[in-house]
Design goal:
210 residues, mainly beta, 1 helix, 3% helix
């Protein structure tokens, strides 16, 4: 399964995942993935992803690090979901999680968008904040032998894997033969002294259902 690319400059070569599963994604301001009433619907951040049927997805994880300096600098995992059966639309539905720079410090961010987006933040561990690095996991929730509608977002740290958020609607009312996108994204919504943001990713992995 090859990577696909969205919103990368045509004048630059596309990033490639190394044999040890590392890659650096770069972006300049202003790029973002964000949706807010009444009319903001941004989806212009560089996104390196794999496309797979919804029915095949189990989980994904990645570690992200960078020199976070400007408000809202961000990088991490992103999942783009197909439209629901009851509301066919070209508007993208997505969940993104990773590091976001806010109030002068890198924090864990989770943003989920269906009709509109919401946003939440969580402080990193002292070590994670100092290094500007974290590992996130997103996984579809399984109850007994069936897969339900929930996408769980977790932080992987010294204390183990800690569930942070449940996006309860993620897989509800979907045609599971449709494609979803899972990958790494980087965004720089705010102009700052640094023209470019570079985010280092490692350990990107998608786990498939049996």
């Amino acid at each position: 399964m090859e990577f696909q690319y969205l919103n990368f400059p045509s004048s630059e070569s596309l990033p490639k995942l190394s044999n040890d599963r590392k890659v650096t994604l770069k972006t300049k301001a202003k790029t973002d993935v964000w949706r807010k009433p009444p009319a903001v619907d941004d989806f212009n951040a560089p996104f390196m992803y794999k496309s797979l049927p919804v029915s095949h997805f189990k989980s994904a994880r990645v570690s992200a690090s960078g020199a976070w300096k400007t408000l809202y600098d961000q990088g991490g995992l992103m999942v783009v979901l197909p439209h629901t059966k009851s509301r066919p639309t070209e508007q993208k539905r997505w969940v993104k999680t990773g590091i976001e720079f806010y109030h002068g410090r890198p924090m864990m961010s989770v943003v989920a968008a269906d009709l509109w987006a919401d946003w939440s933040l969580l402080p990193l561990s002292p070590e994670g904040e100092r290094e500007g690095k974290m590992t996130v996991v997103v996984e579809r929730e399984q109850e007994e032998r069936s897969w339900n509608s929930v996408l769980r977002v977790s932080l992987v740290g010294p204390s183990g894997t800690i569930p942070i958020r449940e996006v309860t609607w993620a897989f509800h009312d979907l045609d599971e033969s449709q494609e979803m996108w899972v990958g790494m994204a980087v965004a720089k919504p705010t102009k700052g002294e640094d023209e470019e943001l570079a985010v280092d990713f490692e350990g990107f992995d998608i786990e498939f259902r049996d």
